[in-house]
């Protein structure tokens, strides 16, 4: 489907494929799949990527029969690699107009998809993000939308007329992405593994294009605790530092001015994270290693990072080759 056709397709005629990355949370995964199957506006296909889980994830998926397309990996590729594999599978085998991307602890409410489709219908929008709440109904600080800086009055009014907010980025906790644009810009960068993968990817999709936050589309993010990503991340802080440096140095997702803006914001957040940490030595080690690797290395091409998965690897290479 062409860009113009995809943008103007009526909600009922739009082909939506959901992509879930799963790792050792089989009961939450079951709940997520059931929520997708229970949408008022049903999805056309569900792709689940099992990131080398050691629990009964595969058995749980099997209970849904042909309703779910399972891709099983024999090593953990992180959220970034899992989404790259799952999105490639969806593009190569399920003919989506839109991809609906989420973690296995993301539980969409029954009208979440319908609200996303209404938000993008008849527009030039290429990305939409849901309102993410925790189990008690509070907005989840881990997935707070960021209003697009320097947004034009026209774009702001267009989004506001439908009750939405223009954004420059969104998260993989319910990201709705137009498939033709995904084919154009490529897949998430697998070597990011975790952290900043969705920031880099959503800003890449949205550079020179429009996206919105849709408060009427609500999903529940069932994390263990209610908190933001900068609350004492421990050893994972390495990925925050390395990946942010990779993004600022190598990604084309941000303009030069935006890199200055978001780079300064990251430094402030790192300082805030250190101030709140209960073990600064762990954070210090993560920062030093992340700083070193962020400057001395760069992410590999997805074809190299995701080699060895037979059909899944072939799907990734095919999508990336078409993008190139």
3D structure, described in words:
- The chain is an alpha/beta fold.
- It has one domain (3-227, 298-323): Spore Coat Polysaccharide Biosynthesis Protein SpsA, Chain A, CATH 3.90.550.60.
- The chain is 44% helix and 19% strand.
- The chain has 13 helices and ten strands.
- The protein has helices at residues 3-8, 26-37, 57-62, 78-93, 112-120, 153-160, 179-185, 197-206, 237-250, 256-276, 280-296, 302-305, 311-323; strands spanning 16-22, 45-51, 68-73, 98-103, 106-108, 125-133, 146-147, 165-169, 175-178, 210-221.
- Strands 1, 2, 3, 4, 5, 6, 7, 8, 9 and 10 form a ten-stranded mixed sheet that branches.
- Strand 2 (45-51), helix 3 and strand 3 form a beta-alpha-beta unit.
- Helix 4 packs across helix 13 (311-323).
Protein topology:
Layout: H1 3-8, E1 16-22, H2 26-37, E2 45-51, H3 57-62, E3 68-73, H4 78-93, E4 98-103, E5 106-108, H5 112-120, E6 125-133, E7 146-147, H6 153-160, E8 165-169, E9 175-178, H7 179-185, H8 197-206, E10 210-221, H9 237-250, H10 256-276, H11 280-296, H12 302-305, H13 311-323
Parallel strand pairs: 1-2, 1-4, 2-3, 6-10
Antiparallel strand pairs: 4-9, 5-10, 6-9, 7-8, 8-10
Helix pairs in contact: 4-13, 9-11
Keywords:
324 residues, alpha/beta, Spore Coat Polysaccharide Biosynthesis Protein SpsA, Chain A, 10-stranded mixed beta sheet, 13 helices, 44% helix, disordered N terminus, glycosyltransferase activity
